[in-house]
Design a protein that fits this description.
The complex is a heterodimer of chains A (about 525) and B (about 325).
Chain A lengths: L1 H28 L5 E5 L15 H10 L4 E3 L5 E3 L2 E6 L5 E6 L13 H14 L1 H7 L2 E8 L2 E6 L5 H6 L12 H4 L16 E3 L10 E5 L23 E4 L5 H9 L5 E2 L7 H4 L5 E4 L6 E7 L9 H10 L2 H8 L6 E2 L25 H11 L6 E6 L8 H11 L4 E6 L1 H8 L12 E7 L27 H12 L3 H17 L3 E7 L3 E4 L2 E2 L13 E2 L1
Parallel strand pairs in A: 1-10, 1-11, 15-16, 15-17
Antiparallel strand pairs in A: 2-3, 4-5, 5-7, 6-7, 8-9, 9-10, 11-19, 12-19, 13-17, 13-18, 14-18, 20-21
Helix pairs in contact in A: 3-4, 9-11, 14-15
Chain B lengths: L1 H28 L4 H6 L5 H11 L5 H13 L13 H36 L4 H15 L2 H15 L15 H35 L2 H8 L4 H12 L1 H18 L1 H6 L5 H11 L2 H29 L6
The chains are: A alpha+beta (about 525), B mainly alpha (about 325).
């Protein structure tokens, strides 16, 4: 009797335990239907998208902030927070009126004064913003809903810059936040975008939570690119940074996650053919691998040596070695991206075809005496790892002496800002990658900036290119801009600042019940539904 | 005993100071610039320099060290360069997953390894002994991440019994907490089971040859009692030492497991901080690991007096 009772008790206890585990487990696994669980491309560390150019901070910006203008799917500028824009007959006064119903996440209305402060902060930090502000005599809120630009000369840059799609994006913030000096990070994270940053639920390094902003008033037009109606179709978006991408795929297959922002190419076979998973591409214009010269030191201080590489290299070798899957890459020589508004092949004939004879000829003309070329090789970012060895191989094929030094990306980042001689801790070249949104015109493309000391690492210095960038900024019609873009490519051929090594795309993997991923160029989460 | 404890605790101060100097210098000598990382890929020199000044990285090294040390003595470990949160807060948030995983792993290890090692010693030379030692060699040879992936494939993807990744705080439910720790603790315990089982076998084997074991048997005691009361207890000092050190190693060394199972513990925090060159976080975490190591060593020493009454301090 006692034994039976005791056995029963034990069985009951075990059953209770199992049930409690089961219940807890199901409670844990069950997600609210409208919570989208996302693995972003990296962890969000810096919450100020104006203070840093990191893409993850930009994407955070798109969650909680809105922009005055945005590029649609075809690359055309469309008003976003703005209702109407008028330009005076002399082209020197631009007036923008905010649309109705805009409010901050704390309920306060969005005012023109907020936008003016936001533009000024962004304009003091971002290169394109600085260029735009150089045309601005005064920028004022003439009433609660009207922003007035007084310009010192005509330019088509104002709306183009305010529609800038990638880092730093001119996000609008409340005036008290935007008054933070651009040298300091903001400490309040209130926007007027479709999602609210849930700061209390933020677990640094683990979870970033955004809740739907119920009071957001989207535009009436359908979503297109970064423009149109930004309708939040899920109640909550959780970003869950997972370092181990294999594990992220496992979790996606098991239904624990809904969305992996950037699936490494080598993991594609794991999800292809899985009916519960689909592959989409929010950035059809893709990214460009880019070879960067340091023009301060021999041998790349001589343009002929840089031109030699334009002939020695070819894009196919890099793309094959790094991406491998032809569905996810294509050769694209156009400096401002293929499928982008300023795509042109002017002056590109014969380049990037591994014409070794022509390359050797130019090397001989340059007087290259065999000094080592210090090529920095990043080893810890999978998407860059195979590129430097290919470059080394092709450079050696034309007789260059390449000293390839391997290092982690952060060491490379620190070293590339050093102007010292390569032997003293400096460098000659390295390879990186840009998203198409960062290189879509001559003013936005940072590697084309040839303003010597003010230019990015590599420090190119060329008056002709700078003059053309200025001319582009002053141009007021698309036709004028296109003509200048062609001239820029010609000037770049004479004075190469960098070389594009090919366009590549990366798939986003989602559960098959996730719909509405837009081709925006950045991971944004409005319009996405989970059925 | 109390004075011994006090002496040992005081002795930790110079050890911690040495660790502090070492880790501070090591980080400053490592290539990489947190300011450049924070500024992002497209920042220019002026922007990077501005951030360096904000972080105080433009000051001479001795000044930086003294500022850090001074703040630390006031209980201020500084602010993370990236998250703009107090390092103490970051560590506190990451402590629970690491401690949970370490504790569960060590409990699992002890529960499996000590009986296995004892059995192997008792049945020395038998198939059971060879089987256990064979498993031990396998356990040593298999990397934790391989075991982790195999377990995930079987129990999470194929059978769907357990979650693939993630952590649930114990305050949100013991069931979910335990479910998420089962696979990582099994994966992590394999190597420790292998190690401690071997150690137990050797220690018990030594003791089984002692006169007092023969005496116990001669007195007619059961084999279980001989093993548990006389053999294992007398073999316990080296076993407890290894278990204690394993626990210390676990706390500081669960990086791979945390990474594979996406557990937001101290190991992942350390890796993230190192990759981002987040100096205040790395310094604080390494100091914490050192302190835990010293503390566990002290606890091991104290445990000797309980296990072996002949030991006195």
């Amino acid at each position: 009797m006692f034994k039976t009772a005791r056995r029963g008790l034990i069985k009951g206890a075990v059953a209770a335990m199992v049930m409690s585990l089961g219940l807890s487990a199901s409670g844990t696994f069950a997600q609210a239907e409208t919570t989208l669980k996302v693995v972003p491309h990296s962890d969000l560390k810096i919450l100020d998208p104006i203070w840093t150019t990191a893409y993850i901070s930009r994407n955070h910006g798109y969650m909680i902030y809105d922009t005055l203008f945005a590029l649609d799917e075809s690359g055309n500028i469309q008003p976003q927070m703005v209702d109407t824009v008028t330009t005076s007959d002399d082209g020197l006064t631009i007036t923008m009126t905010l649309r109705d119903g805009l409010s901050w996440h704390d309920g306060a209305p969005v005012t023109a004064a907020d936008c003016v402060a936001s533009i000024k902060r962004w304009g003091s930090k971002d290169a394109m913003g600085q260029k735009m502000m150089s045309f601005v005599d005064s920028l004022e809120a003439t009433d609660d809903k009207t922003i007035t630009f007084k310009l010192n000369s005509q330019t088509g840059l104002v709306t183009l810059a305010l529609a800038k799609p990638s880092s730093n994006v001119p996000f609008m913030m409340p005036e008290r936040v935007a008054n933070t000096p651009s040298s300091e990070q903001i400490s309040e994270f209130i926007g007027s975008g479709p999602f609210v940053f849930n700061q209390e639920a933020w677990e640094p390094g683990t979870k970033i939570v955004y809740d739907k902003f119920a009071a957001y008033v989207p535009r009436s037009e359908p979503a297109s690119g970064l423009a149109g109606g930004k309708i939040a179709k899920v109640d909550r978006v959780e970003w869950l940074p997972i370092r181990d991408q294999q594990q992220a795929v496992n979790a996606l297959k098991a239904g624990e996650l809904d969305y992996i922002e950037g699936l490494p190419h080598d993991l594609l076979p794991l999800v292809e053919g899985d009916e519960n998973i689909k592959l989409v591409d929010f950035n059809p214009a893709g990214n460009q691998f880019t070879f960067r010269f340091n023009v301060l030191h021999p041998p790349f201080d001589n343009p002929k040596m840089r031109q030699a590489l334009l002939y020695a290299l070819n894009q196919e070798d890099f793309l094959q070695a790094q991406i491998g899957n032809a569905d996810y890459y294509k050769a694209c020589k156009a400096m401002f991206g293929c499928g982008m508004p300023f795509e042109t092949m002017a002056h590109m004939d014969g380049l990037l075809e591994s014409n070794f004879d022509k390359a050797r000829e130019l090397i001989a003309e340059s007087g290259y005496n065999g000094e080592p070329i210090l090529l920095m090789h990043s080893t810890d970012l999978a998407v860059l790892t195979n590129l430097a060895p290919v470059a080394k191989d092709l450079m050696e094929a034309v007789g260059l002496n390449v000293d390839m030094q391997s290092m982690d990306w952060q060491t490379l980042v620190a070293r590339r800002s050093k102007k010292d001689l390569p032997a003293d801790g400096g460098w000659n070249a390295f390879i990186t990658s840009w998203t198409a949104g960062d290189l879509f015109n001559p003013v936005a493309m940072a590697f084309l900036n040839s303003s010597c000391d003010k230019a990015l690492f590599g420090w190119p210095c060329d008056e002709k290119i700078e003059g053309l960038r200025d001319a582009f900024a002053r141009a007021t019609t698309k036709e004028e801009q296109l003509k200048i873009v062609e001239d820029v490519q010609g000037a770049w051929l004479e004075y190469p600042t960098h070389i594009h090594l090919g366009q590549w795309n990366q798939a986003t993997a989602t559960r098959s019940n996730v719909d509405g991923v837009l081709p925006t160029g950045a991971a944004v989460f409005w319009n996405i539904s989970k059925n | 005993m109390l004075s011994y404890l006090l002496r040992r605790l005081i002795a930790t101060i110079p050890v911690m100071l040495l660790v502090a100097v070492f880790v501070f210098m090591l980080l400053r000598l490592t290539p990489g610039d947190p300011a450049a990382i924070i500024a992002g890929d497209y920042a220019n020199d002026a922007q990077i320099a501005e951030i360096r000044t904000k972080l105080g990285l433009d000051k001479p090294l001795p000044v930086q060290f003294m500022v850090w040390l001074g703040n630390m003595f006031q209980g201020d470990f500084g602010e993370s360069f990236f998250y703009k949160k107090q390092v103490g807060e970051l560590i506190a948030a990451r402590l629970e997953p690491t401690l949970s995983l370490s504790l569960l792993t060590i409990i699992l290890t002890v529960c499996i390894a000590v009986p296995l090692g004892t059995l192997a010693a008792y049945r020395q030379g038998s198939w059971l002994d060879r089987g256990i030692m064979g498993f031990s060699v396998l356990g040593f040879s298999l990397p934790v991440f391989v075991i982790g992936y195999m377990l995930i494939y079987l129990f999470s993807i194929k059978l769907g019994w357990l979650p693939v990744q993630g952590y649930q705080r114990i305050s949100d439910g013991v069931g979910g907490w335990l479910l998420r720790l089962i696979l990582p603790s099994i994966a992590l315990s394999v190597i420790f089971v292998a190690f401690i089982a071997r150690m137990t076998r050797t220690s018990v084997l030594e003791v089984l040859g002692e006169d007092y074991i023969r005496t116990a048997r001669a007195k007619g005691q059961t084999e279980t009692r001989v093993l548990m009361r006389h053999a294992v207890r007398n073999a316990a000092v080296p076993i407890v030492t290894v278990i204690g050190l394993s626990f210390a190693i676990l706390i500081g060394g669960v990086v791979v497991t945390e990474s594979v199972f996406n557990l937001p513990g101290l190991g992942l925090l350390t890796v993230e901080a190192v990759l981002a060159r987040d100096f205040p976080t790395i310094q604080a975490v390494i100091l914490l690991f050192s302190f835990i190591y010293v503390l566990i060593n002290l606890l091991i020493d104290v445990s000797y007096t309980v296990l072996d009454p002949r030991i006195r301090y």
